[in-house]
Design brief:
2 copies of one chain form a homodimer.
Chain A (H helix, E strand, L loop, with lengths): L6 E4 L1 H17 L3 E2 L9 H6 L8 E3 L2 H9 L4 E7 L5 H10 L1 E6 L2 H10 L4 E8 L7 E2 L3 H12 L4 E8 L10 H22 L7 E4 L2 H6 L8 E2 L9 H6 L9 E11 L4 E5 L2 H4 L4 E2 L5 E2 L1 E7 L2 E4 L5 E5 L3 E5 L2 H4 L7 E6 L2 H8 L1 E4 L4 E3 L9
Parallel strand pairs in A: 1-20, 2-10, 3-4, 4-5, 5-6, 6-7, 6-8, 8-9, 9-10
Antiparallel strand pairs in A: 1-11, 11-12, 11-19, 12-18, 13-14, 15-16, 15-17, 15-19, 17-18, 20-21
Chain lengths: 369, 369
């Protein structure tokens, strides 16, 4: 394949395998599989999920829900504390599709109670310890208060409790992922046991890719909403959540300069292509990506002593070992394995598959949602 | 003004003042003012520069050069080590406008020598100590070698030496900015003195916003290429390079949740809106933005103990003091002052002026360059 400038390369086969593996796991555990589409943000990639039986999806914004609704998805959960200023778009969507929103405070429900025109499913957001958003799992009084408010509105239909155990992303080991997931399970199960008499159809929905990928115990859970697994990335690989070969996206960049005095090469590919998310490298420094090169017509992954160590707006700097530096030449196309594929995809705005097909994303071209 | 979702607000008056100040400074120092348009990436904002006499511009990619050429700019320097894989686009551009490129190695010149079809100005990139790209200023042999190569090609016209003293952005004080700038001046002046006999029309072009904003000594310099000054941001403010009132962009975000137990609020506005660039706050932690609220119909800047402390893809978390927490309410629109305005603008893709006008950027709508 010929490249001209930084290009986000997507291996469709790997991506399909990732989708299939997760879909089968959900099936075997009798879980509703409602994948999060914020990672890929693409109608075409979304369609790949259909052949694995996926009919319901998760998104992170009203805009994204509108985009996927336009592309034929009719059952969408917006897993973000509702921004009630988008009431017009929410009313429009809920007239057309089965829409679920997430609430965690009375102010939002109060606003919705005034302006909501059509039925909307509502999940109460539960904080299982990530401390980003949601009500702490033990706060029954607060939850009862919200439920009272929800039940006063004929359009709001209580669907259940939704959590995102995002602190699995900060785990220091697989063991810690298991622990945090299990702790979250206990909390969500207590809620279920407490409320299931009154709400027998209530669902427990959990979200993170690490636990969905490696944990086996989902007792009490009804639905999973992982997103990142579709591509995975270095962060997941470092966590022990995926194999290196499961990573489906790479940023292809040309080398534009070489600096032997400091074993560094400059690539065209910077913060506006790959994003500034980093992990800590073996040398204790920030790593923005790992490097795959072509050597004797084979793809070779360089070890962590060769890594993307600095990013400006368009420049990337790769620190190399003396030995591998000689294999990095001006004009060469190298592949950067991204630290956080969601942010890289969001910046690049489209994909090129390894077969040369271009796959647009939300926001490309004329899609203005 | 009514908002619906995160919106990048641009104060046109501040922006015009920033442009005017820099244009007048360049004029008073008899410097060519070739502003870097990578910060705003917008044809409309580009046009604002014309009334201050700007006719020549800087960009950071061939795509950006193509965009601004399409919008009427006829004298453009691409201040990035040339990516020769874009030779077709370079040939197309150089047929139509006065185009300058930047080189720092023989490999690139060698390639250009084979495939360049029309005259192109060429700057040699000099590293004044930032250690990102360029030839170290004292390497006369290397420079002579490049010049020999350049002179062998009828299309390549040597224009001079170009540097970006980007280590002024890492300075710990204004004093250090002066020092680094002066050190760069000495290096560039030595080069000029050495080569001016042979190349009497040769230019010395320097680039960074910190030195262009606060330094007064530009002896030996012919051209300045600052970019960030058009908006400034918290990084420049923390460096002592601009006043707080010179910052022209703000991300307007709604508060969607409140967590009194940890004095935190959640906003709709995350890494895909503001970018993950951070500075170090007074508490030693990463700060992604400062906060302006509306209080009694007045805009009030909260002190640094209230700050954007965490970002996910769409969520932002603000840590607040107990006192100010009470002024942050669900549904309120607050303003985030960005750490790095270039990256925030690049992510947001368009501006809304304080007068309600929408200003598109490169990549919006149908502009596919």
């Amino acid at each position: 394949m010929e490249f001209v400038r930084p290009t986000l390369l997507l291996d469709k086969d790997i991506c399909l395998k990732n989708i299939e593996r997760m879909a089968e796991k959900a099936k075997s555990k009798k879980l509703i599989f409602r994948p999060h589409f914020k990672t890929h943000q693409s109608a075409i990639i979304g369609d790949w999920f259909r052949k694995y039986g996926v009919e319901a999806i998760t998104v992170s914004s009203v805009q994204m829900a509108t985009y996927f609704s336009y592309h034929g998805w009719t059952d969408i959960t917006i897993a973000f504390p509702v921004n009630f200023h988008e009431i017009n778009q929410i009313n429009k969507l809920s007239q057309e599709i089965s829409l679920n929103i997430v609430v965690e405070n009375k102010e939002s429900i109060n606003y919705l109670n005034k302006f909501l025109k059509f039925p909307v499913g509502v999940f109460i957001k539960i904080d299982t310890g990530f401390n980003r958003s949601g009500i702490l799992a033990g706060r029954y009084n607060t939850i009862d208060g919200l439920l009272k408010f929800i039940n006063e509105n004929k359009h709001l239909q209580f669907k259940g409790f939704l959590s995102h155990t995002g602190h699995t992303y900060n785990a220091k080991s697989r063991h810690e992922i298991f622990n945090r997931h299990f702790d979250a399970l206990l909390k969500m199960r207590s809620l279920k046991n407490y409320y299931k008499k009154k709400y027998p159809n209530m669902l427990v929905s959990i979200g993170d890719t690490p636990s969905a990928s490696i944990c086996e115990n989902f007792e009490g859970v009804d639905e999973i909403r992982p997103g990142n697994f579709v591509f995975y990335d270095l962060m997941q690989y470092q966590l022990g959540v995926c194999h290196f070969d499961d990573i489906a996206v790479r940023l292809v960049c040309p080398i534009v300069a070489k600096h032997p005095s400091r074993n560094e090469v400059v690539i065209y590919g910077g913060a506006i292509h790959i994003s500034k998310d980093s992990i800590t490298n073996i040398d204790g420094k920030e790593l923005y990506g790992q490097i795959v090169i072509n050597k004797n017509d084979k793809k070779v992954l360089l070890d962590e002593r060769n890594y993307l160590c600095k990013l400006s707006q368009e420049h990337g700097i790769i620190k190399a070992t003396h030995k591998d530096f000689n294999d990095l030449n001006i004009g060469d196309w190298i592949e950067i394995i991204p630290v956080h594929s969601c942010l890289t995809a969001n910046l690049m705005g489209k994909y090129t598959t390894t077969n040369g097909e271009t796959i647009p994303m939300m926001g490309s071209g004329n899609d203005d949602f």
